[in-house]
Structure formats: C-alpha cells, structure tokens
Amino acid sequence: MTKASLRKEYLRKRLSLSEAEYAQLNFQLYQNFFSSLDLSFIKVLHTFLPLQKNKEPDTWIIIDRIRREFPHIRLSLPRIEQATGALENIFFEGLHQLEKNAWGIAEPKQGVPTPPLQIDMVLVPLLACDTNGQRVGYGKGFYDKFLATCRPDCITVGISFFEPVEPIEDINAFDVPLQYCLTPASLHRFRQTSF
C-alpha cells in the first residue's frame, strides 16, 4: 500500500476505537513499554505528546511513571518551528511550560533546548509502520528531519495500536526507518536496511 492509503485507513481505524478500546490499548502499550524496553542506560528520552482528537497513543501515562520512578531520565518534548518546519526539542520541566499549537498539540512554549546528539531514545508517533520499520505519519516530514539529526545509536521506537503492515510501496531516501515498533501486544525489532 502507499503512504496516502495507509494514512487514510489507519486514521479511520484509530478514530473508530471506542473510548473503552482506546483506554485498554493505551494501558497495554504502557505495560508493554515498561516490560519490554530497558531504560537503565537512557539519560534523555524524547517523546511526543498525544493529539487526543486523533486518538494518538497516550504517552502521558508513560511520562508520569518515568518522572516518578526513573529520576535519572530527563524528558524532552518537541516544539514545531512554524517558519522552518523543524522540530525543536525542549527539556520538560512541568505542565506550566505547555500550550497548544495550531494543530491542538501541547508543546513547550519556553524552556532549555535539548541538543539532538544528547537524546538516547525517541518515542515516535505514527499512523502505521511496515515490517521493515518504515513509518507513515501525517505527511509533514517533521520526524524524518529530526531523526536524521540524532546520533546513529539513538534508539527509535514507534508507538502504535496496530501491528506492522506489509512493506510500504512509496518509501523515499528521506524516510528514516524505526529500530522498534511498540504495540499493545509486541515489541517489533526491525532489520535495518539501507534505502
């Protein structure tokens, strides 16, 4: 399938989840995150904040536990630089720092920038990903540009309610594949292949 057709299908699938299904899938993602990923060597973790109107996975429950139980981890949040289309990364200090952007996504309005080379793990939003670790987002390219600036050993984890699909047909040289995709049932590790 193409990115456009997957984008349409998986947004529809997410929006058709009942509130009970959505809550259950989020809880299973949360449990699987902490049982499947080793956070002992992570010093800086970058995570997206969920766009709730699109029923994105709720990263807040992961953030809350990290802040309580993993004091050695600093959290970093994205902010979209409207003029350049780039993601800026800002260390998360607290809810007082956040405001909604034009898309309705909470992001830091101020704070200390996070140098991309300091980031050890990135939780990546997506609508779908394939069995090679290629992802489909909303089509703006924010995360592909950002991930290209991270260290080669930075761990990239896509977060999805759905299992990976057959390989996406229209991958291009700017697409940065994921190393992992976390779903409610599994943690998929992808064989890294060059484009």
Automatic annotation (TrEMBL):
Substrate binds at L49, E56. GO terms for molecular function: 5-formyltetrahydrofolate cyclo-ligase activity; ATP binding; metal ion binding. It comes from Chryseolinea serpens. InterPro entries: FTHF_cligase (IPR002698), FTHF_cligase-like_sf (IPR024185), NagB/RpiA_transferase-like (IPR037171). Belongs to the 5-formyltetrahydrofolate cyclo-ligase family. Its EC number is 6.3.3.2. NCBIfam families: MTHFS_bact. This is 5-formyltetrahydrofolate cyclo-ligase. The keyword Signal does not apply. It catalyses: (6S)-5-formyl-5,6,7,8-tetrahydrofolate + ATP = (6R)-5,10-methenyltetrahydrofolate + ADP + phosphate. Pfam families: 5-FTHF_cyc-lig. ATP binds at K3, A4, S5, L6, R7, R135, V136, G137, Y138, G139, K140, G141, F142, Y143. It comes from the Bacteria. GO terms for biological process: folic acid-containing compound biosynthetic process; tetrahydrofolate interconversion. Gene3D superfamilies: NagB/RpiA/CoA transferase-like. Its cofactor is Mg(2+). Coiled coil: none annotated. Keywords: ATP-binding, Ligase, Magnesium, Metal-binding, Nucleotide-binding.
